[in-house]
Amino acid sequence: MTVKSNHVTIKGTKDGLIFLLNDQCEFIDLVEDLRYKLEHSHQNILTGPIVHVDVKLGSREVSDIQKNELLDVLKSKGNLLIRSVDMPEAELPESNKNTVTTMTGMVRSGQVLHHEGHLLFLGDVNPGGSIQCTGDIFIVGALRGMAHAGVDGQEDAIVAASFLAPTQLRIAEVISRPPDEWENRESSMEFAYLQDGVMQIDKITNIVRIRPDLSTFKGV
Questions:
Q1: Which positions fall inside the Septum formation inhibitor MinC C-terminal domain (predicted)?
Q2: Helix H or strand E segment including 10
Q3: Distance CA 45, CA 31 (A)
Q4: pTM score of the predicted model
């Protein structure tokens, strides 16, 4: 009988999961244990809505290749969305209204990603998927689902995407259903914003003209 090692500890929090990775074992053993827990002993966490994941490496120093290998194991599970990776000696950023949280993954049909604050999402939002934020939404990928920025009524919020072809855009309480020709728009990154209560679309190069404060954003 094979006895699996305890190199990976998974803890639940009110807003997601924390993966505590042993920083003393061999890296190959760490990856093996991570795969085993996701595919066997902790398979129940892979069903249901999106789960935010924070990865803590302790004092382990990893190369970019090793880091990507760990993240690939996590991202192969459809509902796990990586929110942060704590590296050795990494300092947590101070709370700042201009700080943007970065997440990677994919929002699939039927999934809703809700975030408090500003979000930089590296990935695609598929038709039937939805991102909702109290602040701004920046998507480095295709937005083909629904995006709602400023959900608490922030009318100066924006929605930006590398490829903007949503089923619906919403900023604060203003809803815009895109015309059919959006699928034929240029592929350059665009953003949506409100002007006199009406939703407008413009190229990302003009974003600072609309929101000068974005020139000082951290994380973008």
A1: 104-201
A2: strand 8-13
A3: 18
A4: 0.60
Work out the number of other CB atoms within 10 angstroms of the CB of residue 58.
Answer: 12
For tokens 């991202």, the residue is 75
- 7 by Cβ neighbours in 10 Å (0-12 / 13-18 / 19+) ranks as buried
| Six token digits for residue 4 | 């699996």
Within the chain, residue ranges assigned H as helices are 27-36, 64-75, 207-210
120-154 confidence digits (pLDDT tens): 999 999 999 999 999 999 999 999 999 999 999 99
The length of the chain is 220
Instruction: Give Cβ neighbours of residue 196 (< 8 Å, ≥ 6 apart).
Output: none
pLDDT in tens, 12-43: 888 788 999 999 999 999 999 998 888 876 66
Question: Are 57 and 71 a contacting pair, CB within 8 Å?
Answer: no
Domains annotated on the chain, with CATH: 8-86 (3.30.160), 100-216 (2.160.20.70)
Cα-only R_g, the chain: 19
